[in-house]
Amino acid sequence: MSFHIRRIEPDDAAAMAQLQSAPGVVRHTSQQPYQSVADWQHRLQHLPADNHWLVACTADGEVMASAGLNILPQVRCRHVADIFLVVRDEWQGKGVGRALLQALLDLSDNWLGLIRLELMAQQDNQRAIALYERFGFRHEGVVRQDILQDGCYVDSVVMARLHWPEGRQA
Predict the structure, then answer these.
(1) pTM for this predicted structure
(2) Per-residue pLDDT at 169
(3) What single Pfam family name could you report for this chain, choosing any that match (predicted)?
(4) pLDDT tens, position by position, 18-38
(5) What residue segments make up the domains of the chain, in order of their start?
């Protein structure tokens, strides 16, 4: 399978509306289904500078997945970013998420100098949790009953990865 990774563009609004409405994506995020293209256009045109958002595309430009990191705005937390990763249902399990996560980690470690990446994953999303664990994310806790999924409240796992440049670990 051939795909490439690039930074998200405002022209990706329609693709993002479609991606974020995929049943498997909606199920495992806090996003609402049926997001409009107009909402996505507005969001992508006004991305803060500290949002680093990537997409994985097929050879013909179809958006298969997206991932990003959002650096925390507080001055004393500029070494920390929240991350997210979503893959369209039909592309899950094919290496797209792994490649996007690797690209985010490269960006974080080698270009942005971030120390801590954190995320929350719904406890039943074992495929995503296993992927994060393979890349060094560790469980830090559970947030109970925080997401409404299919009419029921479910728990989320808090995970983080620490990456210290050589010789700088506290």
Answers:
(1) 0.89
(2) 66
(3) Acetyltransf_1
(4) 988 887 787 777 777 778 899
(5) 3-162
Give, in order, the Cα–Cα distances in Å from 94 to each of 10, 74, 99, 100, 145: 26, 37, 10, 12, 30
Q: What span, in angstroms and rounded, lies between the C-alpha atoms of 114 and 162? A: 9
Q: Which amino acid is at 31?
A: Q
pLDDT in tens, 118-158: 999 999 999 999 999 999 999 999 999 999 988 899 999 99
Query: CATH second-level architecture of 3-162?
Result: 3-Layer(aba) Sandwich (3.40)
Tokens representing residue 128 in the block: 């995503």
Q: Which amino acid is at 100?
A: L
Two structure tokens written together for 116: 């801590």
Residue 125 to residues 28, 49, 119, 132, 165: CA-CA distances in angstroms?
A: 7, 30, 13, 11, 31
